[in-house]
Fold AraC family transcriptional regulator.
Amino acid sequence: MARENIHNSLEVYYEKIDCCPLQDREFNFFEFVYVLSGNGMHGINGNQLPFKTGDLFLITPRDCHSFDLHQVCEFMVVRFAPSYVKSYSWQSIDHIECLLYYASHFSGSILSNEADQLIVGSLMQNLLHTVGQKSIYGEDLIRHLVNAVIVIAARNISVIKPESISPNTDIRILQITDYIQENIRNPELLKIGVIAQKFGLSDTYLGSYFRKQCNESIQQYISSYRIRLMEHRLRFSDKRVHEIADEFGFADESHINKFFKRHKGLSLRVYRDNCKKVNVLTSLDNASNGL
């Protein structure tokens, strides 16, 4: 399997090809692929789905993907390292990095909003124009355009619900899950009584209603979402355990470790150490292959 690395934190380029030069590529960075023209099949992590003009794919680190082109295709490709996401202040969109990694759960285009499809199309045309010119402040303009694409991608990923929540789910459940995600760092706002009052339901009805709609309890949903955010803090940030505990409203390291160990079977420090070992092994593997 071919592995690819990038040498800069951000790389943007235009590509016009009639066949994919490499198959089953594995990256150590994020990659947006926007289809300017053409169609074919996109394979990612063993799944094959058709693609068409206007689709936007997000390939995350360690995803394995390839394209089977049915004709000459044009792409805008945006590659950026995880460090690029960390270095930017995203203000209202916290856990944006976690959202981007969550795209690995999906094989198709991540643009679900029609208005956003038009906006991204315009942004990509502007990127194409800017990349083709060597002008003053060109790099700054490219970064602003790329950041806009990242925010729109995160917005679309955020409304893609877990498999347990079907597209036909009651709109109120979608509002409840959005509320949970927005307030995941504030335990006081995630108490059953508070959520029930917020949405005009009784405590008992909220529990049975959520389980019926989502095939899991509301507490299970809250815990799994909180755990996923913690995992990404441990893997992709330098935050200390006590800082993560403060962020998610735990009294101290002992309480957050008990919570994490109950779900993952190990402490936060051990989980982070294991992730570091995997990263070292991957780097050594890349070096041995001359990458």
